[in-house]
Specification:
37% of the residues lie in helices and 3% in strands. It is mainly alpha-helical and 126 residues long. The chain has one domain: Winged helix-like DNA-binding domain superfamily/Winged helix DNA-binding domain (Arc Repressor Mutant, subunit A, Orthogonal Bundle), CATH 1.10.10. Strands 1-2 form a two-stranded parallel sheet. The longest helix is centred in the N-terminal third of the chain and has 10 residues. The chain starts with 18 loop residues before the first helix and ends in a 9-residue tail after the last helix.
Length: 126
């Protein structure tokens, strides 16, 4: 039996999000004054060994995202020439730092549950 197009339409298929787009979706959900690690994002996305790829995504992150809130697992602020700017942005948000210059991850890490609970909707960074 032939289907009449007026009565039947195939549901639209969404293209799967790229890894970078999924990283950006998580970054967009990091609360003000909090941070996440590259590895934490990789783990949330189901690729626990992809912290380096998360870093690559951050290197070309859209400007409107709070990319400064992604740090290393030990709280070090990386970013080459942008490290000082990132630190200044984090300080302006009230992020606590340890005496050795690293972010106090115990005080400022965003819990996985907070990031995971908000996944699934449309990307908020578009």
């Amino acid at each position: 039996m032939r289907k009449n197009k007026a009565f039947y339409e195939e549901p639209a298929q969404e293209a799967p999000a790229t890894f970078f787009e999924r990283v950006y979706d998580v970054i967009a959900r990091i609360p003000y004054g909090k941070v996440v690690s590259y590895g934490q994002i990789a783990r949330l996305l189901g690729n626990p060994r992809a912290a380096r790829q998360v870093g690559w995504a951050c290197a070309v992150c859209p400007a409107q995202l709070p990319w400064q809130r992604v740090v290393t697992v030990d709280g070090a602020v990386t970013g080459g020439a942008y490290a000082d700017m990132r630190r200044a942005l984090l300080e302006s948000e009230g992020v606590a730092f340890l005496p050795d210059g690293r972010v106090d991850m115990d005080a400022c890490r965003t819990p996985d549950a907070l990031l995971a609970a908000s996944r699934g909707g449309a990307a908020v960074w578009c």
